[in-house]
Specification:
about 70 residues, rod-shaped, mainly alpha
Amino acid sequence: MSAQDGTSPRWRLPLGWLVGIGIVAVLLLADAHLVYVAFTSQPSCVSHLKMPDGSTDHFRAVKSGC
């Protein structure tokens, strides 16, 4: 097979599929890791302002979990 007659080598199609499957696998593993971290790293209490005194412009929690 030569490049001048318009045909491509036989290995290009399987190589393209392998690269595509590899990219999809990496994306799925990254998403699975994000879901795992989201469920296992929830803190029980986060520091925040307790009283709405209006003296600062900081946000405070709607409902305290502590």
